[in-house]
Design a protein that fits this description.
Blueprint: E1 4-7, E2 28-32, H1 35-39, H2 45-64, E3 68-72, H3 83-93, E4 98-102, H4 107-114, E5 122-126, H5 135-142, H6 150-161, E6 165-166, E7 169-170, H7 201-213, H8 230-243, H9 245-248, H10 268-273, H11 278-290, H12 296-320, E8 336-337, H13 339-342, H14 348-360, H15 365-379, H16 383-393, H17 399-410, H18 427-433, H19 454-465, H20 467-470, H21 477-485, H22 488-504, E9 507-508
Parallel strand pairs: 1-2, 1-4, 2-3, 4-5
Antiparallel strand pairs: 6-7, 8-9
Helix pairs in contact: 2-7, 5-12, 6-12, 8-11, 11-12, 12-17, 14-15, 15-17, 15-19, 16-17, 19-22
């Protein structure tokens, strides 16, 4: 009788996992904390703490269910600290003749595992069916299409699942209510306070170990409040459905200077590690709509993020890798600005988005796309530097979801495979959608001069610099028309403003690395 080692990864903490299904009674389940996975980018302490605490709790759950479990802790003396090597070591230790594992969240690991399928100790790879679709499903949908647009994919998913459908037609008569979901921040808004999760001895020890072994990484455990058990994740789901969902839609693109979470669900980390299923989350939102407790624009917008966007980026990742990661269509070469690691900038919107990231390992999607992302796009930050940063600092960042969002949506580095145009904007957008600018030393109304918002000159400089690739894009015809009508003196002044700013911009090659400038001190960049 075959004796398998069932390797369960840190983002696979679901009892419904294919690896665990129909497991023979002699199987050994392995969960492994390895330094290699915590250090290949400098993951935020909250992210590492989340994985370690949730994995340790899941091991307890598995033992309670009758599984034989081996748990490799970060401080075990014989831990190899390589996921592949540790699994093979444990298989030999327990006399297992094969290793079974469900598709991981990164092509890097998937490729390593595939290379071992024909070894004497073989790896059996299983498809992850905890999503609405598989990579093969997406591949079949994409076949023969010139453009892989989300909207068409999303509509097919609605029809296939029946979510928010009445027969063959969408509830409310429209597929998409995005135009109702763009209201800016308002001073009178009050946001629901998040549940505060208690920390038992398992959680406390895991957070302590994460902070001890990775004390050189971003963050402090003092502000840790992520769900590390299924029970805690269900509390967060219920809280959002009852207190956040109704207002989520119209304010989903708003940005607050003081409130990090607004009406957002903050459920993505729990879904991405397996504590919640996307099906149950979507069905809970749909039920709230049918109960008359949340408007269609909010519920449709929320479900589209999960059923549409989340599935779409995963399908794109698995069908485009490994070549996708090397794409750099606009030829960006600049290293990451140093303040992305410490929030030491006098640009208020960036300072607040990055400080909230440092505090919570979280920023909502518009902060990521239109503040930190937009700035990186306008400055020409090289894709690998920005992608590594997003992967490192956010608790919900698995490469399958992070890479397409960053490389494709933020940097337009995939040549338009995901987005038909770059998501670039001047300071006017941030002024409209947030209350940052009233607290900032820069003015979004000025393009040049000492008080001009850097986003403004950088915006026009980006358009001018990349005109050869972008000016034929029909969706950018109007803005390039405005640029062409601009007087040369004004264009030259903008050009100089942007280039002086970029020349003084301190960059860093990674967390804890010294800043680099082109002959300027750090303080000079803020004068």
């Amino acid at each position: 009788m075959s004796k398998p080692l069932l390797l369960v990864l840190g983002d696979q903490l679901s009892l419904s996992l294919p690896t665990l299904r129909d497991a023979p009674s002699n199987a050994v389940v392995a969960l492994c904390e390895v330094a290699e996975e915590a250090r290949y980018v400098p993951h935020h302490l909250h992210k590492t703490g989340l994985f370690m605490a949730a994995m340790r709790h899941f091991a307890v759950t598995l033992r309670d269910k009758g599984y034989t479990v081996h748990y490799s802790r970060i401080d075990d003396a014989d831990n190899t600290h390589s996921l592949i090597e540790e699994a093979e070591r444990l298989a030999k230790q327990y006399g297992c003749d094969e290793i079974r594992v469900t598709r991981p969240g990164e092509w890097r690991l998937w490729n390593d595992m595939q290379q071992r399928q024909n070894n004497a100790l073989s790896w059996q790879l299983m498809e992850d069916d905890r999503f609405f679709t598989t990579p093969d499903d997406f591949s079949r949908w994409a076949e023969g299409r010139k453009q892989l647009r989300l909207e068409y994919f999303y509509r097919e998913q609605r029809k296939r699942t029946g979510l928010l459908m009445e027969g063959d037609t969408p509830v409310g008569g429209q597929w998409n209510y995005d135009h109702d979901n763009r209201e800016p921040i308002k001073a009178a808004l009050s946001f629901p306070a998040l549940p505060q999760h208690s920390q038992d001895s398992v959680t406390k020890e895991a957070l302590h170990d994460a902070a001890h072994y990775f004390d050189d990484h971003m963050g402090s455990m003092e502000t840790f409040n992520l769900p590390v058990t299924r029970r805690q994740a269900l509390v967060d789901l219920h809280h959002f459905i009852e207190h956040g969902l109704a207002d989520f839609g119209r304010y989903q693109d708003a940005i607050s200077d003081s409130a990090p979470f607004l009406y957002h669900s903050r459920l993505s980390a729990a879904m991405n590690i397996g504590l919640l299923s996307p099906v149950e989350v979507c069905e809970a939102a749909e039920a709230h709509y049918h109960a008359g407790k949340a408007p269609i624009n909010a519920v449709e917008g929320f479900i589209r993020q999960i059923l549409g966007w989340r599935e779409y980026v995963r399908g794109l990742y698995w069908t485009q890798m490994p070549g996708y990661k090397q794409k750099n269509q606009l030829g960006f070469t600049r290293e990451l600005p140093a303040f992305y690691w410490d929030a030491d900038t006098d640009m208020r919107c960036l300072q607040r988005a990055i400080q909230m990231t440092i505090d919570n390992s979280y920023a909502h999607h518009i902060q990521r796309l239109m503040v930190t992302g937009n700035f990186a796009l306008l400055c020409g930050i090289k894709p690998e530097a920005l992608c590594d940063w997003y992967l490192a600092v956010y608790a919900d960042a698995s490469e399958w979801v992070e890479l397409p969002n960053t490389l494709g949506m933020v940097l337009h580095a995939d040549g338009g495979l995901m987005g038909s145009k770059p998501y670039c904007a001047s300071g006017k957008y941030i002024d409209k959608m947030s209350d940052h600018c009233q607290h900032c030393r820069y003015s979004p109304k000025e393009i040049t001069g000492p008080k001009a918002c850097p986003f403004n000159s950088l915006y026009w400089h980006f358009l001018e610099t990349n005109a050869e690739q972008l000016n034929r894009n029909p969706r950018m015809k109007l803005i390039y028309g405005s640029l062409s009508r601009m007087k040369e003196e004004k264009r030259e002044a903008i050009r100089q403003q942007a280039e002086q700013f970029l020349a003084k911009l301190p960059t860093s090659e990674g967390y804890g690395q010294p800043a680099h400038t082109q002959g300027y001190s750090h303080q000079e960049t803020r004068s």
